[in-house]
Amino acid sequence: MRRQDPSGIRPLKQLAVALAALILGAVWWTAAWSAEPLATLRGAEIDQEPAPPMLSNPSNNDLRRGRSYPEQPPTIPHQIRNYQVDLNTNKCMTCHSRTAIEETQAPMVSVTHFVDREGQVRAFISPRRYFCDQCHVTQHEARPLVGNTFIDVDKLLLDLGDGKGN
Q1: What is the DSSP letter of 58?
Q2: Residue 13 belongs to a domain
Q3: Which residues fall within 8 angstroms of residue 90, CB to CB, at 6 or more apart?
Q4: 50 in a structural domain
Q5: Could you tell me the residue range of the domain that residue 154 belongs to?
Q6: Whether this model's pTM surpasses 0.70
Q7: Which of 16, 17, 109, 126 is the most buried (most CB within 10 A)?
Q8: Which ranges in 64-152 belong to alpha helices (H)?
Q9: How confident is the model at residue 56 (pLDDT cuts 50, 70, 90)?
Q10: What whole-number distance in Å separates Cα of residue 88 and Cα of residue 97?
């Protein structure tokens, strides 16, 4: 049977050994980590500011794109450079308002855009939906930076179910 050390020295030795092992491990890990460069998509060291790539022109084919998930805001199928959208003017509504869609043949904004915070349907766009490019974006024909394994919900249901989405 082991006797208890009344002075408490043995637990202190164990603690010292554990701390020494922890410190040595941290030093080894830091040396191993700093030996390899950090992998990023930036194309430059972390303390450098690389020149941003040139933006391509947005797609301007006026074709509606499919959506990948329910409630996804539709993308803008045309360029919107120099469109004024501020507290006084919303250039988007020139074509997408109820009064303009017959002439422009542009789709009208969703009825959800006319519902205010209290759930009341209003005659004009709700202030919380007024700044279109908070949700809607133009698309650029660009090569993806990383791979994408996203599967559309409809395809997922077809693959899992009986082929009819059931």
Answers
A1: B
A2: no
A3: 84, 125, 130, 131, 132
A4: no
A5: 58-166
A6: no
A7: 109
A8: 93-96, 101-104
A9: confident
A10: 15
